[in-house]
Specification:
The chain is 39% helix and 18% strand. By secondary structure, the chain is an alpha/beta fold. It has a 9-stranded mixed beta sheet, sandwiched between helices. A two-stranded antiparallel ribbon has the order 5-8. It has a two-stranded antiparallel sheet with strand order 10-11. α10 crosses α11.
């Protein structure tokens, strides 16, 4: 039997292999990503569950970057979602967001992303995309809560609050695109980012269920990792230790990307729309530039990092289907050949055994009727 740890290691190795298989030199990850932002329409959710700052700052920052922005509540989200290229789900309270949108809103967002929409979620908006009982658009999973954080009766608590430092992933196409956009690794890693109890992400440790696997597509790529953790407080706001916890969440994913159907999903825990001082960042700030990159990367013109954006009738998809079918037929042939070979050997061994018994018990009959069999065996 293969141990659970080995199964998880093999699953992560498969994810890494499939993601790296999309890194091609003839299809750069940045094709079409740097078009005019005025041509990209963005819907910002400002309905029930959106935080106070989440209702104001994202729209202001995106407008300063040149995007066409419209605020939507839970009442007009379903009817108007098709008008936009990108949906921005801000921080706030994911439980209230889900209650406000209901099943109709959830299905509308899933369908819209699967058909080419771009989903960008931060903090509570990331939780919505990650949790299986919510939207479940993201391929990432939630890291366990720190053992030293006291959680409230409704599962509420402060995972951390304050500035965090981040690192950029290596050898991923989304990180390559970030540098091509003009945001260098040192500039990201030398900047302090605002964080307030947002989700901390991990690569999936278990294979996807079949229904989700039909929609999510590779590559599944982390863009940013936590380099430090934030000071924490208990749910009742009593301090634990305002020193940063040593390596509690260092190395976990802070911002990740994956495909969902024909659409794209990018989610993260920190707040990219606000400075650590609580002020609105400018268009040329690190926050503004990263927000600009994220919207363009999940936008309609960015070809993204692979063939997952190809139309269903695209020749590449057709070739891949035939290759997969051929491989399946060959595998079935090999299995059938081995099975029939084993059956043949078992039959011959059984026949030989019967002949041996006859030779011992009735040699005269064997000589009259079974001489050819004796010569054969």
């Amino acid at each position: 039997m293969v141990s659970m740890a080995t199964q998880r290691w093999l699953w992560l190795a498969l994810l890494s292999l499939l993601s790296s298989a999309h890194r091609t030199t003839d299809s750069p990850a940045t094709d079409g990503c740097f078009s005019d932002p005025t041509e990209i329409s963005v819907a910002v959710y400002t309905g029930k569950g959106a935080g106070v700052l989440g209702k104001v700052l994202p729209g202001q920052l995106l407008r300063s970057l040149g995007y066409s922005v419209t605020e939507l509540s839970q009442y007009d989200l379903v009817d108007r979602l098709e008008e936009f290229h990108v949906l921005f789900m801000p921080g706030g309270y994911d439980v209230d967001m889900m209650e406000a949108m209901g099943k109709v809103g959830v299905e509308a967002i899933r369908s819209w992303v699967a058909n080419g929409g771009g989903y960008l979620g931060i903090c509570a908006g990331a939780n919505l995309a990650v949790k299986k009982e919510y939207l479940h658009l993201s391929a990432f999973t939630l890291a366990p809560w720190p053992h030293d954080v006291k959680v409230g009766k409704d599962g509420e608590g402060l995972r951390g609050e304050g500035p965090v430092m981040l690192t950029v992933s290596n050898d991923t196409m989304v990180a390559d695109a970030l540098e091509a956009f003009g945001i260098s690794r040192p500039s990201v890693q030398g900047h302090a980012w605002d964080y307030c109890s947002g989700p901390v992400l991990e690569l999936p440790y278990e294979p996807f269920d079949l229904q989700f696997a039909r929609m999510v597509d590779f590559p599944i790529e982390p863009l940013l990792y936590f380099a430090t953790t934030a000071p924490t407080k208990n749910y009742d706001h009593t301090p634990i230790d305002f020193k940063q916890r040593n390596n509690a969440e260092v190395g976990k994913v802070a911002l990740g990307f994956n495909a969902y159907g024909k659409g794209k999903v990018m989610v993260g825990g920190p707040h990219w729309e606000v400075k650590t001082s609580g002020q609105l960042p400018g268009a040329e700030s690190m926050e503004g530039r990263l927000m600009d990159f994220m919207v363009r990367y999940v936008g309609p013109d960015c070809q993204g990092p692979s063939w997952f954006m190809l139309d269903e009738q695209h020749p590449t998809r057709t070739v891949l289907r035939w290759v997969a079918l051929l491989g399946f037929v060959v595998l079935c042939g090999v299995v059938l050949y081995v099975y029939l070979g084993n059956k043949s050997r078992e039959s011959e061994e059984a026949t030989g055994s019967e002949m041996t018994k006859l030779a011992k018990n009735k040699p005269e009959k064997l000589n009259q009727y079974g001489s050819l069999h004796i010569e054969r065996f």
